[in-house]
From TrEMBL:
Residues 15-78 form the RNA polymerase sigma-70 region domain. This is Putative RNA polymerase sigma factor FecI. GO terms for biological process: DNA-templated transcription initiation. GO terms for molecular function: DNA binding; sigma factor activity. Residues 110-161 form the RNA polymerase sigma factor 70 region 4 type domain. PANTHER family: RNA POLYMERASE ECF-TYPE SIGMA FACTO, RNA POLYMERASE SIGMA FACTOR FECI-RELATED. It comes from the Bacteria. InterPro entries: RNA_pol_sigma-70-like, RNA_pol_sigma-70_dom, RNA_pol_sigma70_r2, RNA_pol_sigma70_r4_t2, RNA_pol_sigma_r2, RNA_pol_sigma_r3/r4-like, WH-like_DNA-bd_sf. Keywords: Sigma factor, Transcription, Transcription regulation. Belongs to the sigma-70 factor family. ECF subfamily.
Length: 171
């Protein structure tokens, strides 16, 4: 297909008609689930339509977007599975309501997406400090960096979380 711009209605319709079936089947083979494949195919086209750049290779572009969404889907499933496993070990009286669980899962997903915007070492340093309770010296040893670098990673992570939080609450 020649270079096309997703903003034009005729182009959007053409891209969707030409590639939706192929993309959904591609996703179904990877996910093993028609429903998730349909959801991710939809989300892929939503992201494609927001793009304002010309697209020379629509299938390659769709595949790139879809791969990222599939990774996010799997990451969310892993997060939900870990949460359910942890919840199963907690006493029945401490189980949150379904609404609280949904809110918590959304918050965890948002935090996961936020942390995935960091460079890998900054993300790892942040997680080691906050989830495993390690000190900067221990984190430095695990990451094979200086303690000073760990401080920089932690500052980057905290600043990123703070600015994202402020941006989300700004009117």
């Amino acid at each position: 297909m020649s270079s096309s711009r997703p903003g034009a209605p005729a182009c959007i319709e053409s891209l969707y008609c030409d590639h939706h079936g192929w993309l959904q089947e591609w996703l179904r083979r990877r996910l093993g689930n028609t429903f998730d494949a349909a959801d991710i195919a939809h989300d892929t086209f939503v992201r494609l339509f927001r793009n304002q750049e010309p697209i020379c290779e629509p299938r390659a572009f769709l595949t790139t977007i879809a791969r990222g969404l599939v990774i996010n889907h799997w990451r969310r499933q892993d997060l939900e599975r870990a949460y359910r496993d942890t919840l199963a070990t907690v006493a029945d009286t401490l189980h949150p309501s379904p609404e609280d669980r949904a809110l918590l899962m959304d918050a965890l997903s948002e935090l996961d997406a936020l942390l995935n915007q960091l460079n890998p070492k900054a993300r790892t340093a942040f997680l080691l400090a906050h989830l495993e309770g390690l000190g900067y010296v221990e984190i430095a040893a695990r990451l094979a960096v200086s303690e000073r670098m760990v401080k920089k990673y932690m500052a980057q992570a905290m600043l990123h979380c703070l600015t994202s939080s402020l941006a989300a609450t700004a009117p």
